[in-house]
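[09:14] KT: can someone run the structure on this one? pasting the chain below
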Amino acid sequence: MNFYDVEGKIITKPALDFGALFNKGIELFKVVWLPGFVTVLFSTLLTLLLVLVMYTPLIALGIFNAEAFESQEPPIAYTFLSMFLMPVIVVCIFAVNLLLMAGFYRICRAKDAKLNTDGHFYYFKKQYISKAFVLALITIGLAIVGMLACGVGLIYLGVPLALFPVFLAFEEELSALEIVKASFALGNKNWLVLFGVTFVMGLIAQLGVILCVVGILFTAMLARIPIYYAYKDGVGFKDDDTEDRLKALASSPEL
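[09:31] RB: done, structure tokens below
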């Protein structure tokens, strides 16, 4: 679908229901908790790997020129290199997490439709990676704007920003900027419901701490599942539209 088709669906679809998102989210979590845990694990490992890349020059300098650390101040060369590397690494971390979340939503779709598929690294492809980097830059920019608004802006932006990966996963025809516009359109229409359900789900997910603390890794994705149903109920999949039309034809009186 192009952006105008997506926007039209968002406008015509009924408003999302808190209870429906909550109940369906709990039921789907029972099926996707393990892929969710794997997603969190991959995200953590890749983030640590990217952070390690930032410190690689410092480690190499310590190995080949230990005298450089005799001064209390870090080497000037490393300071300048860090100023360049840090923003790049931060953008990479955001982009990787967007791609992994898109993969998780693909798995949610497969489990919801009772299909067998994997998807953790499905979106690590050229056409998606380029979009993910643009979305990462936009996310960082909006987060900075939100923080400048005394943090209140971040609360508002949290809902549309959470919708980025689900549109990245299921609307491949949209550009990065169109994904942003579609996310804000769906998020603004259902902001209170989406904020409420993700907040409540997030609180429930914190109960994973009880399970020797590491249990949070298994429950962390619980708060993300309602976003999948926000897209499904607020926009809809192409095959769902086909199924609805077939049902309508089947129930219509014969001519």
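[09:33] KT: thanks! The chain has a mean pLDDT of 84.
[09:34] RB: yep, looked fine to me
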